[in-house]
Write a structure and sequence with these properties.
The chain is mainly alpha-helical and 132 residues long. The chain has 4 helices and 2 strands. The chain has helices spanning 7-28, 33-43, 51-70, 75-117; strands at residues 121-123, 129-131. The longest helix is centred in the last third of the chain and has 43 residues, at 75-117. The termini are far apart.
Length: 132
């Protein structure tokens, strides 16, 4: 068989590979954040995740989008920036919620501890005075 006979197979295969590569470029930057998102959501602990990384990625992708208006580049790279901005905003939202909830729990514990044992005397729920 010659190359002319395989043209019907190579053209769709080339398109499929091209679409697959474009999808990998668009979503490849977000994939590493999926396990981190799930782990932070499951444990309700965002200590190991740096929000400064989100800040840097947000600034870089916003600058890339602004650059696109001046000089157009491939559209998968533009879509990659948009998807990455959305992913970073979701990650920041989750980290903020988790950190605020954890800080509120710590403050509640500290308030409860100071309320019950601040001066050597504590008021119990039955309103009797006891010592700590």
């Amino acid at each position: 068989m010659d190359a002319q006979g395989l043209g019907w197979l190579l053209v769709p295969l080339h398109r499929l590979v091209s679409w697959g590569a474009a999808a990998a470029m668009v979503f490849g930057g977000v994939v590493p954040y999926i396990p981190q998102y799930r782990d932070i959501r499951r444990t309700q602990n965002a200590e190991g995740f740096s929000t400064y990384v989100c800040l840097v990625l947000l600034v870089a992708n916003i600058l890339r989008i602004l650059f696109w208006f001046g000089r157009h580049f491939e559209s998968p790279l533009l879509w990659q920036s948009i998807v990455m901005i959305l992913a970073m905003l979701v990650m920041l939202k989750l980290c903020t919620e988790v950190r605020v909830a954890n800080e509120l729990n710590i403050k509640r514990r500290l308030f409860a501890a100071s309320r019950w044992c601040s001066c050597g005397q504590a008021a119990t729920p039955s309103r009797r005075r006891t010592s700590c």
